[in-house]
Amino acid sequence: MPEPPQANTESLNSALNLWQEAVEKASVDLDKIVNNSIKQLESLGQDLEEALASELKRASSRTEAILAADVDELSSGKDELQGQLTEFERQQVERMLTIAQEARARIDTLVIETKTEIMEQFRDNLKDLTRLLENPRSGFDDMEESRAASIDEVVEQGKQKTLARENEAKESLARSADELGEEVAGAIAAGRERIDQKLEEYGKGFDEKIKQVLEQLDDLGSETTDLSSAIASQGVQRIEQCRDKNETFLGDHIEDFSGSVAELKSKFEKELTDKTGENLSVHSRRLEYQVSEAKATINHVTNDANARVVGIHKSFYGQLKRLERRYQDRIKRQLAKLETVMAQERAIPTDSKAMLLRSREELCQRLETELKARGGELVKSIRKQVEQLEDDFRRASSSSSERVDSIRLQTIESLEKQVRIIRSELDRINKSFRSDLAQISSELPEIEERGRVAAMSVAAYRASMLDLESD
Question: Is the pTM here over 0.70, yes or no?
């Protein structure tokens, strides 16, 4: 009777030993599987980090190269614009100087011609007076009538000649002023067109560069998504191979982890698209605002220039009118003096020829001195007016050049600000991307801990199942 219980105990001991060995082997296998899965997850995480770091380095190097090229192009465009502006200013100054020289030469020729004509008329009148003084009896009968007629003719001729000269001077000055106004308007329009063309070229170039940067960012995002998808597919395949060896519980946790990674990736892509859209809208608004400001300033400058040119024309026309009135008053005074001299000659007795000769010489000297003084005054006044016109034109040209320089500086500063803003936005995106990567890497220990807990639960589950089977 005692032999059967010994056989049962031996069989039970052997079964227990076999069960313990199987449990130990299963635990060892589970530990190996868990360790392998953890190592694979760590290798996948390192591969992802290395790939993302390399892509970020490439993107940063590309953006730095693009920004350096943009800065070089902007500096070269700035130098070209400065050279064109200096050349334009030099051409305008040369044109104004040539026009002023031509006007001065015309005025000098008109003054010389008027002087010669007045001297010729004066000599003719002196000849007539000497002839009458030598033979006064022959002309006593009709002396007064002939003198009055000659004086009227001289006055009418002088008036006609002065009016003709004044009209010619007015026409020449009006032509020169119109030509100058047309040249100034053409120069302003050409400068405005050049500035608009340069601004359009800079705007187009900047938009193209922004498009290139966005395309490069899109390519980078597509490359990162492809790499992440490829790496994720490889990881999924490896995890599936491990899942075939392990239990379903560990596979469920791995699928949850892959789902969380996909969600993070989708969130990051959405944030990138939203930020790029916002940056594009803000940049387009700023560019439109800068363009509107530049157009408003250019219109303001053109309106000021036109108003100044109109004011200069009006002032010049008023000065011409005043000069005409002064010349008429002077001519009237000279005629009155001639009439007084003629009256004095009538009052002189006929016998005193020596007195007549002396009075004639004195009269000639007085007339010559007065003519010289009046001619000098006329030349001085005309020179002063020409100098005033030159000063006005110089002031107008200097103010226009200063405004063009200020507009150019404002546009350059706005472009530099926009470049700095783009750089800051790229840095901010890079920082946010790195922070997301750091957050994902910080979550890896939790995932590893969850895997270990799952492995321990699987081991406990197998032990409980073996206990149940043994029972």
Answer: no
